[in-house]
Amino acid sequence: MKKLTTVLLVLIAAAGFAFAGGKSDKPLMGVVTPAADHGFTAESIRHGEAQVKKLAAEHGFDYRYMTADESGEQSNAVETILGMKPAVIVLWPVTGDELRSAAQSVTDAGVPLIIYDRFIEGFTPTAEISGDNVAIGEGAGRYFNNYFSAELARGRVNYLEFKGDSSTVPMERTNGFLSTASKNFNMVQSFVTNWSQQTSMEQMENYLNTKSVAEIESIQAIFTHDDEIVFGIVEALKNYHGPAKINIKLINGVSAGEGFMALFENSGLTGVDFMTYTFSPSMVRDAIDLGYKAMQGETLQKSYKIPTEMIDKTNYKQYMQSELYKVRYSL
């Protein structure tokens, strides 16, 4: 992912908000998210912008939408918005713990705070909302159990793990997987990809180029935290021309975007099945909606989990006709 060096994408609701002149008497919603120019986060930003703009036009409030690619810049963005006396702040942290001080400043000021996707451990905002990462991991564990039922009955099944990063999201997905997956699954090696397709490709290539034939041929499955990670792994496997036979039978992802749907049609790999879980960029719209409810003084639950759905070769065509898929690609 291309890094952006400054806080960018400062979007202001058009009607009634002035910087140089007087202040608007309309309530203000602040939104702070990670920055990106492609991939899941970039899609999420577009959906977040669209939803806050829509609600602001419908209900007559102003907003400030800021993105940053580092935690320090995000903290500055939160403080900037906090100085504008917002009615609510919606925060999607780059890294949860590094936003602890900024988040505490928001609650200390009595401003409702909605935290999306990456949480701050031990911190209680007005509400938290995310995809159900634990359920994703648990479901993947059960799917792996069923898929490898014959092999598991005979003994151990070796797999590689490719994690997103060190935030709460990967932790929940891995812990969910371990809670349901058979104890006969043996994790040979775990990699941290930072959600990067390029990184996962390089890690897989390095594994294939440095391990013995026996080690490579022992791997039957790959457990990952994201579709983008899978794309890098697939490229590495397609480009491998070494002496080992690839015995990988199943690779999972998370997101269920159109790129993953293409793997069901033609991955370029023989004998490899794929499975993913829905985790749409449009989910950020739900966080914006909670922000508006908080502006209205509604009492919110402390935690919201957005349901997920398993997608594999048996149902991907039906999924591509669903409302969830259509909304994701509506922008």
What string gives the helices and strands in order?
EEHEHEHEEHHEHEHHEHEHEHEEHH
CA-based gyration radius: 21 Å
- CATH topology value of the largest domain: Rossmann fold
Helix coverage percent: 40-55%
- Classified in CATH, the superfamily of the largest domain is Response regulator
Strand content: 15-25%
Could you tell me the number of beta strands?
Answer: 13
Provide a quick synopsis of the model.
The chain has 331 residues and is an alpha/beta fold. 42% of the residues lie in helices and 21% in strands. The chain has helices at residues 39-59, 71-82, 100-108, 133-147, 149-154, 168-180, 197-210, 213-218, 227-239, 258-265, 284-295, 316-319, 323-328, and strands spanning 8-12, 28-34, 62-68, 88-91, 113-116, 127-131, 157-163, 185-192, 219-224, 250-252, 273-277, 303-306, 310-312.
Could you walk me through the main structural features you see in this protein, from its secondary elements to its overall organization?
The chain is an alpha/beta fold and 331 residues long. The protein has 2 domains: 8-125 and 281-305, Response regulator (Rossmann fold, 3-Layer(aba) Sandwich), CATH 3.40.50; 133-277, 3-Layer(aba) Sandwich (Rossmann fold), CATH 3.40.50.2300. The chain contains 13 helices and 13 strands. The chain has helices at 39-59, 71-82, 100-108, 133-147, 149-154, 168-180, 197-210, 213-218, 227-239, 258-265, 284-295, 316-319, 323-328, and strands spanning 8-12, 28-34, 62-68, 88-91, 113-116, 127-131, 157-163, 185-192, 219-224, 250-252, 273-277, 303-306, 310-312. The strands form 2 sheets. Strands 1-3-2-4-5-6-12 form a 7-stranded mixed sheet, sandwiched between helices. The protein has a 6-stranded mixed sheet with strand order 8-7-9-10-11-13, with helices on both faces. Helix 3 (100-108) links the parallel strand 4 (88-91) and strand 5 (113-116). Residues 1-22 have low confidence and may be disordered. Belongs to the bacterial solute-binding protein 2 family. GO terms for molecular function: carbohydrate binding. This is Substrate-binding domain-containing protein. It is found in: Cell envelope.
